[in-house]
Amino acid sequence: MSTLEGKRILVTGGTGSLGQTLVRRILTGEMGRPESVTVFSRDEAKQHYMRLDFLDRKAATDDIIYQNSQDLLQFRIGDVRNYPALLAAMRSSDVVFHAAALKQVPSCEYFPLEAVQTNIGGAENVARALRENDLPVELVVGISTDKACKPINVMGMTKALQERVLLEANRDCPKVNINCVRYGNVIASRGSIIPLFVEQIREGRPVTITLPEMTRFLLSLDRAVDTVFEAVRSDRRGCTFIPKVPAAKITDVANVLMGENKVEVIFTGIRPGEKIHEIMVSEEECFRTIESGDYYVILPVLPELRDGVDFEAALTSEYSSRNDNIAGDELLQLLTEADSEIRRFATN
Fold it and tell me: Cα separation of 332 and 93, whole Å?
C-alpha cells in the first residue's frame, strides 16, 4: 500500500499504549493524511481520557497532531468479541490495525477463556467480517507478540492462534492484504516491567525481579509503530514482520534505571507462564524468514500463500533475547530515548 493517504483507518484496541502511539503517529501525516481515524474499544473511560488528551489539550501535542485530531479522530465503543459491532465499524474502513487483546501474562493464566475469546475470537471476527461481506478493507495488520513464538503461556498461545487465524484468511480474501507484526517488550507499555521499576525506584521500594537470568527484547513504542508501518508499506500477504532490536538482562535494566539511587533488588521467582528468554523467530520459522532492511519477515506457513517464489533464508537459528545483550551506556541511551514514553504511560 505504501501510504495511508485518504484512507479510512480503524484501530481496534486504540486506547492502549500501542494504540495511542499508533494513532498519534498516523495523525502526524508521516504516512499520508488519512480521511479518518476511528478508535474502536470497549472502555469508555479510556476513550474519554484519550479524547481529552488528543482533542482538548492543545499544549499536550504539536499543532499538526492537534489540528488533525480535531478534524480526523473519531471514537467508537465496541468489543472485538461482538461480531455485529466490529462488522459495523469495518464497513466504513479501508485499513484495520487490529491491536485489541488481553496481553498481561498472569491475567491470561488465571482467566484463559477470556484470553481465548478476545485474542482468538476477536481475530476470527475480523476474518469472518472480511470473508462474509463485500467490505472496502484493503489492508489488515494484526499486532502480535514475541510470546506467540514457541508459546508456553496462555497469552502467547492465544496470540499465536490469532496470527494463524488472520494470516490464513488471506486464502479466502484475495482483495485484502493481511499481515502481522511481532515484537518484544515495549519499554513503556502498560503492565510492562519498566514502568513498574520506575515506580518502585521513585518510591524507594525494592525492585522485584523474577530471576537473575531473565532477558527481554526491548523497544520503544515508536519502534513498535515503525514495525507496523513497515507492514503497511509492504505489498506482501500472509507475512509476519519482526524488528531487529536489542535485548538485555532485566537485572541490567534495573541497575541502569536506578542510576545513583540504588535500592534493594529482590528475586521473587518465576511467575505463572513466564519465560526466562523470549524468542521472536523460532528454529522452525528460520527456513522461511527473509531480511528486509531493519526487519525480518517470516513468510507464510501455508505454501500456497508464498507464491512459489525462491528466497534465501536470513537466519540459521532462533532469534532469541538470550543472545547479544546490551548493557551500560548502550542500554542507558535506549532507556533515555524512551524516557518520555515511560513517563507518559507509567502513571496511566
Answer: 41
What pTM, to 2 d.p., does this model score? 0.91
Among 275, 267, 98, smallest CA distance to 169 is for 98
Cell triple for 12:
481496534
d(CA 229, CA 2): 9
Q: Are 123 and 90 in contact (CB under 8 A)?
A: no
- Cell numbers standing for residue 142: 494484526
Residues involved in catalysis: 147
Q: Are residues 62 and 31 in contact, defined by beta-carbon separation less than 8 angstroms? A: no
Which of these, 107, 95, 70, 84, lies nearest to 12 by C-alpha position? Answer: 95
Contact assessment for residue 72 and residue 61, using Cβ atoms and an 8 Å cutoff:
no
The predicted-structure confidence for 302-326, as pLDDT tens digits, reads as follows 988 887 778 889 999 999 999 989 9
Q: Which residue ranges of the chain lie beneath pLDDT 50? A: 60, 347-348
Q: Which CATH superfamily is domain 8-184+220-243+279-315 in?
A: NAD(P)-binding Rossmann-like Domain (3.40.50.720)
The cell 511481532 sits on which residue?
Answer: 182
H-helix or E-strand containing 48?
helix 44-51
Sign of the CA dihedral with 239 first, then 245, 250, and 254 last: negative
Beta bridge partners of 178: 140
CA-to-CA distance for 300 and 234, rounded, in angstroms? 14
CB 211 within 8 A of CB 255: no
pLDDT score, position 311? 86
Please list the alpha-helical segments (H only) found in the chain. Answer: 17-27, 44-51, 63-72, 83-90, 105-110, 112-115, 121-132, 154-168, 193-202, 221-233, 250-258, 283-286, 328-337, 339-346
